[in-house]
Amino acid sequence: MILDWLQSLGQRALSFFQRLGRGHITLYYLLISIPSVLMRPRLLLQQVYSVGVLTLLIILVSGLFVGMVLGLQGYNTLARFGAEQALGTAVALTLVREMAPVVTALLFAGRAGSALTAEIGLMKATEQLSGMEMMAVDPNKRVLAPRFLAGVIAMPLLAAIFAAVGVMGGYFVGVGLLGVDEGAFWSQMQANVDLRDDVFNGIIKSMVFGVVAVWIAIYEGQDATPTSEGVSRATTRTVVHTSLAVLGLNFILTALMFGE
Amino acid sequence: MAQDETAPLVRIRGLRFARGERVIFDGVDLDIRRGGITAIMGPSGTGKTTLLKLIGGQLRPQAGSIEVDGLDVHRLSRDKLFELRKRMGLLFQSGALLTDLNVFENVAFPLREHTRLPESMIRDLVLMKLEAVGLRGARALMPSELSGGMARRVALARAIALDPMMVMYDEPFTGQDPISMGVLVKLIRRLNDALSLTSIVVSHDVQETAAIADYIYLLSGGKVVAHGSPEELGRADSAWAQQFMQGLPDGPVPFHYPAADYATDLLAGDEGDKA
Q1: pLDDT at position A260, please?
Q2: Taking 90 as the threshold, does the pLDDT of residue B181 lie above it?
Q3: CA–CA separation, A133 vs A122, rounded Å?
Q4: Helices of type H across chain A
């Protein structure tokens, strides 16, 4: 009994470290393939379109609603202390520091990450990757690295759009519906949101999340068992692992950036 | 690069390959002659596809060597291996067409990746290759719109796009209707002779393969059990070779999967399954 238990524990640990190792090998090949992607901007642009532009709608809609909810809740709380003038600051800081990078990464994992995993997993299952290798074309350079770089480029842009739309949503609710003073809303925001401390840190966060999200998506696709069941499992794993990694990393990054 | 013209293009010596516990090849020696069609035949699961992947350098043997055109495939650097692969085409059983590109772009793919030819020349080359497989009119179709046989012909056009010295076919006849089978049989022979290729056909379709092959290797149990021209194999002494070439249901390869005695098994009832 105990021996069986120990054995299965050891097996799990081993397979965990094997996966971790393979994941890092994947990352290594992605990174060394980046220069050749830069030589072929067309491939990169196509991928920026498919992972970035096609994710735009869900980012816009979510950003708007998140911003509106922040406006509403922020107003209710701040009004209790007579500080509703600070609504602009509260909405902007929440969005720029936390909500935009994190929610964008979660939405990205669901929309673009899962699609990447499924696409790469199916390319593997239908021998397209193997076929490319036999045509002396390196799939890392032709297929994987452009997707990786596109994700890393798209994520901060998407997060920035999310934040901008969110601020607009907060403005509609706070100024438009609840009657916060418009001048105070914007001027307080301008005075209290720091470019370096808040905006840059938010961008750094979303770049880190971008790397993690596409890395996991590409790795899972490449590592998927080449069957329909294997690809569906890999897709699920992408979303789950990316979400957990983003939330966990966000805490660490927040502690490093804002926890004085 | 110029090797002795009489030397075999592919020379396999003492090849040993195992997947986990399962030994797939155990001491295989094989020569593929230049300019001919060599068939590698054997029952399903004898690792015929694996052999092609070993020759293409996608898998690494545990022992033995594979030389292609005088180069030891598994000692080459990645760059050299890629150079070598440009001179060989592999036709996957599934076709392995890129599903996001249409027929024309699929055939153009190796040209675009490996050459700096102007667009007009790429167009001409692609149309020539497609004409050779009879699918010039299908250039705008997507892979999902092709039948299995057409997909294989497009893959064949792509495999010869860079004018390789050798084309390897993985089960080209499997799952084809009689017409597309006939088309493929004819194409393999015609392309081999017209482009002075060397072809390796992996298959278990005895009739079709024997009709076009110049030389046949029969693989079973990880070894070469017989080899020779189709006529020689038809007259071979080996009972196994006879069973395979004539497709007999029983012989050295038994019809039954190994099992306990039939009568004992039936009488044992449920007990038998627990044992």
Answers
A1: 67
A2: no
A3: 16
A4: 2-38, 41-47, 56-80, 87-93, 100-108, 114-125, 128-134, 139, 145-171, 182-192, 201-223, 228-258
Residue A143 C-alpha, separation from nearest chain B C-alpha, in angstroms: 11
Is residue B1 very low, low, confident or very high in pLDDT (cuts 50, 70, 90)? very low
Measured over the CA atoms of residue B142, residue B145, residue B146 and residue B148, the dihedral's sign is positive
The C-alpha angle B178, B183, B187, rounded to 5 degrees, equals 150
For residue A171, which of A81, A250, A95 has the smallest C-alpha distance? Answer: A95
pLDDT (0 to 100) of residue B250: 74
The residue written with tokens 């030397």 in the block is: B7
Tell me which of A37, A134, A137, A141 to substitute to probe the interface with B (most B C-beta atoms closer than 10 Å): A134
**Cα–Cα distance between B229 and B234 in angstroms, integer?**
9
Q: Which residues of chain A have pLDDT under 50?
A: none
Cα(A160)–Cα(A156) distance, rounded to whole angstroms? Answer: 6
pLDDT average, residue stretch B87-96 = 86
Q: Which two tokens stand for residue A81?
A: 């202390």
pLDDT for A252 equals 94
| ipTM of the prediction greater than 0.95, yes or no | no
Spell A174-209 as b/e; 16+ CB within 10 A means b.
bbeebebeeebbeebbeeebeeeebbebbbebbbbb
Q: What is the mean pLDDT of residues B227-250?
A: 79
Cβ–Cβ of B94/A136 closer than 8 Å?
no
Give the global pTM. 0.84
Nearest to B96 among A130, A136, A137 (CB): A130
Structure tokens at B235: 């007259």
CB pairs under 8 A between A and B: 49
Chain B contact set for A126 (CB, 8 A): 94, 96, 99
pLDDT at B273: 62
Average pLDDT, chain B: 85
Strand order in B166-170's β-sheet? B88-91, B166-170, B198-203, B37-41, B215-220, B223-228
- Whole-angstrom distance between the N-terminal and C-terminal Cα of chain A? 49
Instruction: Tell me which chain A residue has its CA closest to the CA of residue B85.
Output: A136
Q: Which residues pair with B169 in a beta bridge?
A: B91, B201
Q: Is B43 exposed, middle or buried (0-12, 13-18, 19+ CB in 10 A)?
A: middle
